[in-house]
Amino acid sequence: MQRIYEPENLLEAEMLLGMLASEGVTARLTGEHLLGAIGELPAAGLLGLLVLEDQAERASELIAAYNAAQPLPGEAPMDTEGSLLC
């Protein structure tokens, strides 16, 4: 397996794993068990996404598209001052 990306946090890692799986890319996360040691270990580079070598190029393209995504244009939210949105 080849390490192709270092997610910023566990939430991003899980989201990317799901996205890759939905595209047929076999991926796994490494380093998630080290997150509890932050403070004793350097905080950067603990998480990594691994994919099969023959799927690395496709996975990198998908992650690049994810990183380049922009919010969809739409109307500004209604004035909801003092309201709880659920």
Structure description:
With 86 residues, the protein is α+β, with helices and mostly antiparallel strands. It has one domain: Alpha-Beta Plaits, CATH 3.30.70. Helices cover 30% and strands 14% of the residues. The chain is built from 2 helices and 3 strands. It has a 3-stranded antiparallel beta sheet with strand order 1-3-2, with helices on one face. It starts with a strand and ends in an 18-residue tail after the last helix.
Name the beta content range.
5-15%
CATH class identity: Alpha Beta
Instruction: Describe the strand arrangement of the main beta sheet, using strand numbers.
Output: 1-3-2
In round numbers, the mean pLDDT is 81
Shape: elongated
Euclidean distance between termini CA atoms: 41 Å
How many helix segments? 2
**What's the order of the H and E elements?**
EHEEH
Radius of gyration: 17 Å
At CATH level 2, the architecture is 2-Layer Sandwich
Which class best fits the helix and strand makeup? alpha+beta
Profile the largest sheet: 3 strands, antiparallel
Q: How many distinct domains?
A: 1
CATH topology: Alpha-Beta Plaits
How many extended strands? 3
**Poorly predicted parts:** none
Protein name: Putative signal transducing protein
Organism: Pseudomonas pohangensis
Domain DUF2007: 1-65
